[in-house]
Design a protein that fits this description.
It contains 6 helices and 8 strands. By secondary structure, the protein is α+β, with helices and mostly antiparallel strands.
């Protein structure tokens, strides 16, 4: 068995379980019950990952989800180490999440799965609105999609052939 105290990844990232649910597959011999877990992992400094895992027992499903989340890490560019650079809309299935940058001291205006992803990404001031379906898995995935769409001012300046000062005004 792995010793959690000596595991370097355990110290780097925080993990938060978004959802654990029971799933059933019906076979000829009856129902087969398993558990599905959705976990978000982040360092609160701009790195965040989302993963899902399924197993016969809840702890095993959570372990699998944490491993998947560590593989699916993305880097989020934070403006002033607290918010995002521009408005963005992320989608997954019928779920849509709109994210807007906010003034200092606003806090994280989001609920459920969206809040968990944003907080572990290290975003401290943001406004969000959930549109369409409100399934926890799809809301978390839509938030990750929105965070992937963010562009840095440097990247935008490069695309337009301008300087960063011209972009920021």
């Amino acid at each position: 068995m792995q010793n959690r105290n000596n595991d370097p990844k355990a110290k780097l990232f925080e993990e938060q379980v978004i959802e654990v649910k029971s799933v059933v597959k019906v076979n000829k011999g009856g129902r087969q019950r398993r558990f599905s877990a959705t976990v978000v992992v982040g360092d609160r400094k701009g790195k965040v990952g989302l993963g899902m895992g399924k197993a016969n027992e809840v702890p095993d499903a959570i372990k699998k989800a944490i491993q998947a989340a560590n593989k699916n890490m993305i880097k989020v560019h934070l403006t002033d180490n607290r918010t995002i650079a521009h408005d963005v809309i992320g989608t997954r299935g019928a779920a849509k999440v709109m994210l807007k940058p906010a003034a200092a001291g606003t806090g994280v205006i989001a609920g459920g799965a969206v809040r968990a992803v944003l907080e572990l990404a290290g975003i401290r001031d943001i406004l969000s609105k959930s549109l369409g379906s409100r399934t926890k898995n799809n809301m978390a995935n839509a938030t990750m999609d929105a965070l992937k769409q963010l562009k840095t001012p440097e990247h935008t300046a490069e695309l337009r052939g301008k300087t960063v000062e011209e972009i920021l005004g």
